[in-house]
Description:
Blueprint: H1 7-26, E1 30-33, E2 36-39, H2 45-59, H3 61-87, H4 97-104, H5 107-136, H6 141-165, H7 171-207
Antiparallel strand pairs: 1-2
Helix pairs in contact: 1-2, 1-3, 2-3, 2-5, 2-6, 2-7, 3-5, 5-6, 6-7
Amino acid sequence: MKKTVSLPFMVLSILFCVCLIISNILEVKMISLGPVTATAGLIVFPISYIINDCIAEVWGYKKARLIIWAGFAMNFLAVALIQLAILLPPASFWNGQEAFSMVFAATPRIAVASLIAFLAGSFLNAYVMSKMKIASKGKRFSLRAMVSTLVGESADSLIFFPVAFAGVVPFNELLILIVTQAILKSAYEAIILPVTIRVVKLIKRIDGSDVYDTDISYNILKIKEV
């Protein structure tokens, strides 16, 4: 039987991959939010966790696993193409090569950190969301979304910052970044939660899906099991 992909799933999948690629680029810049130091990726990266919650809630862990690996692949492709752009000789009249390289040459280390942290955080987020949905019989979505995000974001920050910035950012600043980033990203989820709830309800109504992950494998490598 021929498998089809629904329009809501396709749109969320594209948005998921775009958010991940943009967040990797923005992670290069450190920003100050009053007394708090964070990375510019904070602007967009939490959206990927919100989308992860939506996909896991509506279509289940297997679809979430598929899109997590798709996001991983697209991130890897973006980094490879950026490095190719750096290596290509600039036009004789273009004077931006040094600035371009200075910004994007940092991408590989940040990308490796981001990819590892992303896989750990995203799969934990989807796993917790899936298990809590079964345990709660589909109720208390708000609680499930917040708990899964807190677990995923904490794991992401604990992995990302030491790998990406150890030796570059002072140790005490790293600790502050880890804690504040996890809190700020989770707060982001809490603020936008009313919108997430409405989006999930709308997608369930349009798509007709509301999957419960009974009798499935949570092995992250079973990508084809969709």
